[in-house]
Design a protein that fits this description.
Blueprint: H1 3-38, E1 54-58, E2 68-72, E3 77-81, E4 86-87, H2 98-102, E5 109-114, H3 120-127, H4 134-137, E6 141-146, H5 154-166, E7 172-174, H6 183-195, E8 201-205, E9 213-221, E10 225-236, E11 245-251, E12 257-260, H7 266-270, E13 278-283, E14 285-286, E15 292-293, E16 296-300
Parallel strand pairs: 1-9, 6-7
Antiparallel strand pairs: 2-8, 3-4, 3-5, 5-6, 8-9, 10-11, 10-13, 11-12, 13-16, 14-15
Amino acid sequence: MNPFSLSLSRFRRIGRVSRENSFRSQVLAALLSVLLLASPLPAPAETASGPAATLAMVYRDDVDPAAYWVSEKLDGVRALWDGRVLRFRSGLPIAAPQWFLDGLPREPLDGELWIGRRSFEQLSGVVRKQQPVDDEWRQVRYMVFEMPEAPGSFTARIARIRAVTAGGPSWLDAVEQFRVTDRAALRRRFERVVAAGGEGLMLHRADAPWVAGRSDVLLKLTPWLDAEARVVAHRPGKGRLQGMLGALEVETPDGRRFRIGSGFSDAQRRAPPAIGTSVTYRYRELTAKGLPRFPRYLRVRELP
C-alpha cells in the first residue's frame, strides 16, 4: 500500500471517530438537560429586606390638610416589623431583646423606636448595640403609624393599628393621629409642636391605600429640611476656632460639594467626623444651583 492510501485510510477512521464522539456529546447534553428540568432547583436564600416602607415627600402650601390625618414627626429610629424580625429601614435586623420582640403582634408594622423628644442620640446608642441591654431598652417604645400591605384606606388602617396596640405591652403604642380643618389650624398645631421640642408634623392622606416607596400620600412639615452627605475634607478654624474644625467639606450622593460650618459643639470641633463618614445636616432650602442654603450639622449617620 502506498503512503497516500495509508494516510487516506487513517483520515477516514479519524473522521468516523470524531463523528461518533460528537454524537455521544450531543446525546449526553440532551440527557443532562432532561435531568435538570426534571430535578427541582434549590430554593433561593431568604433575603433580609423585610417589609417595604412608605417614604414621605415635603408638604407644600397648596395642599389642603383637611384631606389628611396628622401626627407629630418623631425624632426616632424607623423600624419595620414583619411579624418575625424587627429591622432598620435598610433591611438589617435590629438586635432588640427577645422580651421586646415577644410582645409584638404576628403581623407587619411600621413605626419609630422612640424614647422622647430631643433624645435621638441616646436612642441611637441603645439600638445600635449588637448585645442589647435590657435596662436601656425598657426606656424604648415602638410607636406604630402604619401597617404595610394592609388593605383599605389609611383611616381603616388607623383603626386596626389602634386595636392591635391597645392589647399589647406598655412599649407598644400607636402614634396619635388627628384631623385639622384648614391650613391655619395646621400651622397653629405645627408651631405648638416645634415650640415644645418636636420635629414637626406628618400628614397621611386619609383615603390612601398603602403604597411602597416615596409618595405624596405621606407628607412631612418641618421648619427645616434634612439630607445626608459624605465628609471629604476638614477646613481649619480661625480666630476663636484656631486649632479646631472650622467647617466640614462634604459631598452629596449626586456629586455636589459644599461646606457645613455651623451646628458643632467645641467638643465636636476638636474631634470632628472622620473623612469618609456620612453625616446628616439640616437646611432651609436649595439655591438655584441646587446647593443647600444655611446648612447646619446635625449628627453622624451611624445607623444602617
